[in-house]
Amino acid sequence: MSVDLSKYKKDFPILHRKVRGDNPLIYLDNGATSQKPESVIAAESNFYRTINSAVHRGAHLLAEEASQAYESARENLANFIGAKTDEVIFTKSATESLNMIAYSLGNPDSKFNVSAGDEIVVSEMEHHANLIPWQQLAKRSGAKLRWFSITKDGRIDTSNIDTLINKKTKVVAITHQSNVFGTIVPLTEITKAAHAVGAVVVLDACQSAPHFAVDVKKLDVDFLAFSGHKALGPTGVGILWGRTELLEKLEPALFGGSMVDSVSMEGATWAKAPRKFEAGVPNMAQAVGLSAAIDYLNMVGMEKIAGHEADLTKQLLDGISKISGVDVIGPLDMKDRGGVVSFTVDGVHPHDVGQVLDQYGIAVRTGHHCAWPLMRKLNLVGTTRASFHLYNDSSDITALLAAIEQVKIYFKVGK
Amino acid sequence: MELDSLYQEVILDHYKSPKHKGLSEQKDIQVHHNNPSCGDEVTLNLLMSGQIVKEISWDGIGCSISMASASVMSELLIGKSYQEAIKILDAFVELMQSKGQSVGDENLLEDGVAFAGVSKFPARIKCALLGWMAFKDASAQVMA
Ligand SMILES: Cc1ncc(COP(=O)(O)O)c(C=O)c1O
Question: Alpha-carbon distance B118 to B104, whole Å?
Fold first, then answer.
């Protein structure tokens, strides 16, 4: 099945740019951030043009309209991930979402919390944003951090899951799709094991929610985080989703205006979720922009986007397999794999690979992808990573493959 | 191609056959510098003899620019007085900050002028400076 999404490319103004001479921009760095369609840019700026005011405050018309726009953005996001509206918390980013949840879980006043002697489980292929907050929580609380290892082809090794996830485990924090390998983790096995021992599962959906349909109920996770900017939305807005029963048990991590039920000089009590977790004037225009991005993704269709990215991934994997001295890091097949392909070129450092590709107008990511421990484990200094979104097409892959050949010629490696 | 101004032949040569790579036994000090944004690393051993830079040896992993630059730096600074070495270092740093406007003083920088093109690629300046900053740190500590 081949999916044609070519009619959508024109909606992304930045993709009309010419770069490094007269090359059309070929943007293959979607794992880092995605480009924005005109409708998102318009939604964000229209917020400022027409209804800008502080939500949930003030008795005037603008405040009413802004609050309405903000709350309907929440509803839209909730529908997008199959959640209840009040379970969706707007944050600044996935990084903030993950830090917030780690803080809340570490607060001894939370009715579900992590304390000395408990265990937290992550994996070796977490982004730093889903590793360091848990390292720090372990350090603060006296809990122990443990992790799944990675197999040679970049999959999670679940062979020791029965001992790794045990009755001491309180939290399993795991990526849905690796930002380095593109592998999609075997979530069912992990959520079953976690729930069997009463642990909660925190899912880092940064690389999944923007690319294929994600339903929190079907996935049976307990918390989920992703960033708006990787999902065609603006920067400065992210999502933290949590089950109502759990959100009720947790203390907030940030304190201030709008999140209280009542306040005296001695103390305060909290509003109900989601307000409890949204201290201060939120990133309103960005939330509204993200909602427009969700509309756009829904209009194209998540199934189609996933199918299209699978086509491109397969084309790139096939193409790389025919170039000597160029190796894919991660699975070579299409099973449980999304639109992220990491590779190395023998004898050429990733930074140099990226530089040559850039000369042809091709934007990729190079380096350790904020997954330093993983690179160490693989004995790699880094990789070059191509990652897709709906506006990429088969000619982008053809151009990338040709440019990889040029890298080899330029650095005089292989034949 | 714009790329050729970055990857001068001299740079590619130093990258393929780096000079003074491999850490020496004798040293006054060892420093380790890295570039957390790209993961490049350099470990540098420095041996001074009074005011004179007697020996620099280094090891590291990184891109062509960072490795070639460490190689050129060690070639250039060994045998110089501390004062001269710092003068050369300052000239190299200035060249890197020149945004493509300077060709560099060949009398002072020798092979180092090959890096002039790097100054047009903001993301690569840190690569070119990695080994030099390791030397600066090491020598300042020894001379303190
Ligand atoms: C898997 C994964 N988790 C977390 C993050 C952090 O996202 P942000 O920097 O938008 O907070 C990223 C972004 O690179 C990611 O790829």
Answer: 12
A227 lines ligand 1 (CB under 6 A): yes
Question: In whole numbers, what is the pLDDT of chain A averaged over residues?
Answer: 96
Under the banding of pLDDT at 50, 70 and 90, the label for residue A1 is: low
Among candidates B130, B137, B131, B122, which has minimal Cα distance to B36? Answer: B130
Mapped onto helix, strand or coil, the DSSP state of residue A101 is: helix
Q: Report the C-alpha gap between B37 and B52 in whole angstroms.
A: 34
The one-character DSSP state at A53 is S
Reported as a single tens digit per residue, the pLDDT across A6-17 is 999 999 999 999
CATH for B3-143 is: 3.90.1010.10
Residue of B109, B135, B110 whose CA lies nearest to B53: B135
Residues of A in contact with B122 (CB under 8 A): none
Within A153-260, residue ranges assigned H as helices are 161-164, 187-196, 216-219, 244-249
Question: B2 vs A381: CB contact, 8 Å cut-off?
Answer: no
| CA A348 – CA A323 distance, rounded (Å) | 14
pLDDT of B37 = 81
| Residue range A165-217, pLDDT digits in tens | 999 999 999 999 999 999 999 999 999 999 999 999 999 999 999 999 999 99
Whether the Cβ atoms of residue A19 and residue A361 lie closer than 8 Å to each other = yes
Domain ranges of chain A: 6-30+301-411, 40-298
Classify A256 as helix, strand or coil.
coil
Domain boundaries, chain B: 3-143
pLDDT of residue A415: 64
- List C-alpha distances in Å: A313 to A78, A161, A293, A393: 29, 30, 23, 10
ipTM of the complex: 0.89
Q: Are A381 and A361 in contact (CB under 8 A)?
A: no
For residue A228, give both structure tokens.
Answer: 């708006």
pLDDT at res. A167:
98
pLDDT in tens, B61-99: 999 999 999 999 999 999 999 999 999 999 999 999 999
Does domain A40-298 fall into CATH 3.40.50.11480? no
CA distance from start to end of chain A: 34
Question: What DSSP state is assigned to residue B30?
Answer: E
Query: Residue A351 is nearest to which of B1, B3, B127, comparing CB atoms?
Result: B127
CA distances from A136 to A124, A252, B43 (A): 16, 17, 29
pTM, full prediction: 0.94
Q: Are the beta carbons of A382 and B62 separated by less than 8 Å? A: no
State the pLDDT at residue B1.
65
pLDDT at A103 over 90: yes
Architecture of domain A6-30+301-411: Alpha-Beta Complex (3.90)
Nearest by CB to B62, which of A349, A372, A412? Answer: A349
Rounded to a whole number, what is the distance in angstroms from the first to the last CA of chain B? 45
Catalytic residue chosen out of the listed positions A221, A224, A356, A370: A370
A411 Cβ contact partners less than 8 Å away, ≥ 6 residues apart: A345, A347, A348, A352, A356, B12, B64
